[in-house]
Design a protein that fits this description.
This protein starts with a strand and ends with a helix. The protein has one domain: Arc Repressor Mutant, subunit A, CATH 1.10.10. The chain is globular. It has 6 helices and 5 strands; from the N terminus they run ββααβααββαα. By secondary structure, it is mainly alpha-helical.
């Protein structure tokens, strides 16, 4: 609920946040700062996990993408780049460094040699498994106040916001180029 200057209360529906009043604008700005702060903290946590393996945070994210999306066939470089919102050349460069360190296997596709599929090495899987308990304890601390249903609702709301923010970033880009 947002209390308007006139004293009437206006409920903010999750599907449409009005931004016409000062109070609403303040709430939206507070939301943006809060989400930005969450992003910074998540980056810091990823940096800590990466440091335990002796790699950079972006390299850690590549390993996490492979861990989450590899179904036994490897994951193409362009798919990892898409998930991480980075240029495929960045993933190529970083995955070659990870390959030299023994974290990743890179193999040209049998169907199309231009497509490079990446997968985690056994060494990496073992190291990630060793970190699993620490990660679970941390995530339990962070999310302990949410029931399964509340967590699911939070994810749905964040997914909706992500989708709308993707569209808004395109719209903002179009406005700038006019």
């Amino acid at each position: 609920m947002v209390k308007r200057k006139s004293g009437t209360k206006k409920e903010l529906a999750p599907s449409s946040v009005p931004v016409d009043g000062k109070d609403d604008q303040t709430m939206v700005r507070h939301f943006v700062w809060t989400v930005g702060s969450i992003g910074v903290h998540l980056d810091q946590i990823q940096h800590v996990w990466a440091k335990t393996l002796g790699i950079s945070a972006p390299q850690w994210m590549i390993l996490m993408a492979l861990s989450d999306f590899d179904k036994g066939q490897g994951v193409p470089v362009n798919e990892v780049a898409k998930v991480l919102h980075v240029d495929p050349s960045f993933v190529t460069t970083q995955s070659k460094l990870l390959e030299k360190k023994g974290f990743v296997r890179r193999k040209a596709s049998d169907v199309d040699a231009r497509i490079v599929r990446m997968s985690l090495t056994d060494k990496t899987c073992k190291q990630l498994s060793n970190l699993c308990g620490q990660q679970e304890a941390l995530y339990e601390f962070v999310f302990s106040g949410l029931s399964g249903r509340e967590f699911e609702d939070l994810l749905k709301g964040l997914s909706l916001l992500k989708s709308r923010l993707q569209k808004a970033s395109i719209m903002a880009g179009l406005e700038v180029s006019k």
